[in-house]
Automatic annotation (TrEMBL):
GO BP, sorted A to Z: transmembrane transport
Source organism: Aureimonas pseudogalii
Keyword Transferase appears in the UniProt entry: no
Protein name: Multiple sugar transport system permease protein
TM segment ranges: 26-50, 93-115, 122-145, 186-204, 224-248, 282-306
Length: 313
């Protein structure tokens, strides 16, 4: 074999060309497999979002087809001028903050309890998931029956225990309806936190706890110095996801109070529904939905860039 023939297979240009060809082939195959998913995402997510934003700047009425055309910012002015907007915004903030805080506190406490070496903990871990698997409509109706002032068993128990002088309409009171629905939402949603935090707790190395115990650290100090930092990433992810889920939640409040009484438990999703399905003003409903999406997108980007900055550090 001549020196020229031996050098050809090892030419740098040929190797680079083959490498580029392989990458192009892999990229083409990947694009082919991802194409159906991309089309599905465009149809189910991108197109509805674009449609909502487009209709937010147009006059759209379900019962009056003559009401059409470019509206500019009129729909947004309609929302901001509505007397119910600011109370609904405050209710949404209260509902979201109290729900997420209660879910996290109860989920963390139950996860710590279920991580202990107690007898029957497998059974308790199975039982704690039950509220999460109950459909929202079923859970809401059951709690409406339990809290009913006429025949609700919880009111009867509280009266017998001396906590109440007489049965109280928890869902019908202006000052209690939102807090009551928030309590029910915490009851149903905290198992999701429990499962996630329990998995993170079980991943904490026992060697760290043993070393800290040998150094004289107590249970509470070990929790805050060793255990809690290991839960930071999971906790932030759970809180971020549930802030978004809770803020846009429609089912629970609509099933239990429909935003009443006197809009005392009305949140922004309930307000969007009423604009679209009761007032038939789709343009205003889309404007309010666009404002909500912009706020949620802001939260997402703040969380994303904060997480990236922490990763870079």
């Amino acid at each position: 074999m001549s020196a020229t023939q031996a050098a050809v297979p090892h030419a740098p240009g040929a190797e680079i060309a083959r490498s580029r060809s392989r990458r192009s082939s892999v990229t083409g195959v990947a694009a082919l497999f991802l194409a159906p998913t991309a089309v599905l995402l465009l149809l189910l997510i991108a197109w509805p979002l674009v449609s909502v934003v487009w209709q937010s700047v147009r006059y759209v009425n379900l019962v009056d087809p003559l009401t059409a055309g470019f509206a500019g910012l009129d729909n947004f002015r309609t929302i901001l001028d509505d007397e119910a907007f600011l109370p609904a915004l405050v209710n949404t903030a209260v509902w979201t903050i109290l729900s997420v805080a209660g879910e996290y506190a109860l989920g963390l406490a139950s996860a710590v309890a279920l991580a202990q070496p107690i007898r029957g903990r497998v059974v308790f871990r199975a039982i704690v998931v039950v509220p999460w698997v109950i459909p929202i409509a079923i859970a809401g109706l059951n709690w409406m029956w339990l809290l009913n002032p006429d025949y609700g068993i919880l009111n009867a128990w509280m009266v017998k225990a001396g906590l109440l002088e007489s049965p109280r309409d928890w869902l019908g009171g202006i000052d209690t309806s939102l807090l009551t629905v928030t309590f029910v939402n915490v009851w149903r949603s905290f198992p999701f936190y429990t499962i996630s935090l329990l998995a993170a707790l079980l991943a904490v190395p026992n060697d760290l706890h043993e070393a800290a115990a040998m150094d004289g650290a107590g249970t509470i100090r070990r929790f805050f110095v060793i255990t809690f930092p290991h839960l930071k990433v999971v906790s932030l992810t759970l809180i971020f996801i549930h802030v978004v889920w809770t803020a846009i939640n429609f089912d629970f409040i609509w099933v239990m109070t429909q935003g009443g009484p006197l809009d005392a438990s009305q949140t922004l999703p309930i307000m969007i529904y009423r604009y679209a399905m009761q007032d038939f003003d789709v343009g205003a409903a889309c404007a309010l939905a666009s404002m909500s999406m912009a706020f949620m997108a802001t939260i997402f980007f703040v969380y994303f860039y904060a997480a990236r900055a922490r990763g870079a550090r």
